Amino acid sequence: MKIFRIIAVASVFVWSTSSCEKYLDVNDDPNKTEFASLDVVLPAAQASTCIHVGGELFNLGGFWAQYHTQSPDAGQYQDIDAYNVSVDFFDRTWQELYAGALNDYKYIRENADGTNNAYYLVATLMEAYTYQVLVDLYGQVPYSEALQGTANLTPAYDEGQAIYKDLLSRIDEAMARYSADPANGEAPSGNDIIFGGNMSRWIQFGNTLKLKMLLRVYRVGDIFDQAEVIALANGGNLLSVNAQMTLFEEAANKSNPFYDVNYDRLGGVNHAASQTIVSFYQANNDPRLDTLYEPGSGGAYTTKPQGDFANRDISFDALAEPIVFELKPIVLFSAAEADFLRAEALERFGGGGQTAYEEGITASFAMYGIADTVADDYYGAGGPYEWIAGGTTEDHIKQIATQKWAAMANSQNLEAFFEINRLGYPEYKTLANAQPGDLVYSLASVLPPGQTPQRLLFADVSKSRNPNVPAQSSGDVAVPIWWAQ
How far apart are CA 192 and CA 125, in angstroms? Predict the structure, then answer.
């Protein structure tokens, strides 16, 4: 399949430590053509974003959102589980998202400007999504001076607030341009690996992305637009399906990247189910447990808390583990997430989020083949997820945040980590005081008591070469991102 060959090329760059150098070589190679077809560049760019969000960053988010923990039979990810973050964490992700995805989106935007509004829109939205991920991981990243090749090898780091503000403006401009003249240029088709060229879905993606970003900055007055949030939540044409990459095969180097690295290459010995999420599902008799986690050899969902490296009394075989498979989709947005975003917006600013909250639970259950009538029982009268009648706004925000966390398990791990830090739910407790639905401080934490990871440290690949990287200490991993301060 032609499309998969393109993605396979992108995947090679993803796992290569020299992708940045390869990119510079391409820029300087006189034998390379000066123009690459947009229908070839787009899927490679999309694959770059998806493979990182669904690969290394999926792994990181799974530990820090407490969906999985380091198993006792291996130690590959003990540093992540212990919050022992160093500057060389995710150098490859940093390199490839800039040299690959973002560089390609810039190329598409520049070459589609005025000639193809559909490609311009898709590239703008995917660029904004990718930058949003980077800003939410690091706080500040190169933006206004980025992607200039040899013209500027030491770009300044822009403040996250300024980046968000400009991204929201870019999204509005691209969506308005497409809406004004959708026939300008041929739209993507099968080479669009997210929606197959369905531009109506891309409009919904743009609206959903705007709502997510606006809610993420609702404490930041010069960016937040309450009127737009209310408009988007009240019939703003949001996603009702998952935005996801599904083009994987049951073959080495062609499968889901998290599976490929951790199961095909490393033997599947690193990840055990986290006690945190499993205890929540068990306490509520939640049917999603059976679709997301596999019981241990004894048939029970035996688990360990985060960072419990010293306790080796339980064998890995006896532990429950996440269900991961070659064809597992990489989800950028889920329909449930869109519903929970609406629920939060309406609860905070629009007169009540109950209906959207219940629709989010239904969408999450449906994602795993669980009938709507079953979901009804869970949020209906007397159900474990029943809306708190007469509850405060904060009571309801906690419910929404908790259900979003439960819905994102083993599918949107990184976004779950961001939302935990933004919303403050689920809350952290010591292991002795934790109840089902509470996060726990890692037993192996290297941070001071009461502190948890909020960000990554600036990438060493940039820090070692760029004097404009902001000063930072190892303890800054616990400093909240600007939108959570």
Answer: 13
